[in-house]
Design a protein that fits this description.
The protein contains nine helices and 14 strands. With 319 residues, the chain is α+β, with helices and mostly antiparallel strands. The chain folds into three domains: 54 residues, Arc Repressor Mutant, subunit A; 200 residues, BirA Bifunctional Protein, domain 2 (2-Layer Sandwich); 48 residues, SH3 type barrels (Roll), CATH 2.30.30.100.
Length: 319
């Protein structure tokens, strides 16, 4: 089926007879595969009698060679899959198999993409960016301080460079355009943070997605914001370069050197919010973040700090 998709990716018409000849199957077998492309991968197929079949629009697939060329050779070793459960889960399996970090895992589709707090990350085939970078951390807890926020800044910069000028950050791991989510970050750790561990920097970016009925929150994509089809290979290459720069700054100077830049780009700075943890809720006003990336809130005139993977920040309804 994916071989057929690659034959159709140019967006031109191809006859069933020609496709069958290349694939070594009958025209009826080609027809069945086309039906699967529509039902399983959500790929609209146009059919015109006498001309054949084509995709509704040209399709660009991720290619290691193209990414390396666009990055001018300055990129991490990468593993690209047509389909995985999630790039983070696949990255963790590769760590267990002994693959040496750093390395990058990319996929055209995730069957069980995950966001924070166990939420589903909708991951249609060949439309968005599903990206997991694995780093080895040797005995340096300081290298983990504020790391997810540093990654958020890199994603924000890559989005702005792609034309999404109104993008901003929401503590701790979201990138928004107004109230609409355009990207998210999920960090996962394996090993001993006080000795040797690996951290997976999982990044999901809505690139070319235009329709997604399964998403249960407001969302947008680079394409919806700019009106332009995104070159995902270029996006991978550029994001990698920006991420390398931010990670180097973080490693050399610590999160404190990046704290002010993050606060400057926080959309909810100074806003009245509710911090939700399970069934508990804390109301306050966002003061900023501390030198470790924890959220600083004014709660009834007292400054408190909060951090943790199970926290969720919401704008207060009474503002």
């Amino acid at each position: 089926m994916l071989t057929l998709l690659k034959l159709l990716k140019d967006g031109r018409f191809h006859s069933g007879e020609a496709l069958g000849a290349i694939l070594g199957v009958s025209r009826s077998a080609v027809w069945k595969q086309l039906q699967r492309l529509e039902s399983e991968l959500g790929m609209p197929i146009h059919r015109v009698r006498g001309r054949g079949y084509r995709l509704a629009e040209p399709l660009q697939l991720l290619e290691a060679g193209a990414i390396m060329s666009l990055a001018h050779g300055s990129c991490w070793p990468m593993f690209i899959s047509d389909s995985v459960d999630s790039t983070n889960a696949h990255a963790l399996r590769l760590v267990e198999e002994g693959v040496v970090a750093p390395f990058l895992v990319l996929a055209e589709q995730q069957l069980a993409g995950r966001g924070r707090r166990g939420r589903k990350w909708v991951s249609p085939f060949a439309q968005n960016l599903y990206y997991s970078l694995v780093l080895r951390i040797d005995g340096g807890l300081r290298q983990l301080e504020g790391l997810s926020l540093v990654v958020g800044l890199a994603v924000l910069q890559a989005l702005r460079d792609s034309g999404v000028s109104e993008a901003g950050l929401k503590w701790p791991n979201d990138v928004l355009v107004g109230p609409r989510k355009i990207a998210g970050i999920l960090l996962e750790l394996v090993g001993d943070p006080a000795d040797v561990c690996h951290v997976v920097l999982g990044i999901g970016v809505n690139a070319n997605m235009r329709v997604a009925e399964e998403v249960d929150q407001q969302w947008t994509s680079i394409r919806l914001e700019t009106g332009e089809l995104v070159d995902r290979n270029q996006l991978v290459a550029h994001l990698g370069g920006v991420l390398q720069s931010y990670l180097l700054r973080h490693q050399q100077f610590g999160f404190a050197a990046i704290q002010a830049e993050w606060e400057k780009n926080h959309l909810w700075q100074g806003c009245a919010v509710s911090l939700v943890a399970g069934v508990s809720q804390i109301d306050g006003v966002v003061l900023g973040i501390d030198r470790q990336g924890a959220l600083r809130l004014d709660v009834a005139g007292v400054e408190n700090t909060y951090s943790g993977g199970e926290l969720s920040l919401r704008l207060r309804d009474d503002t």
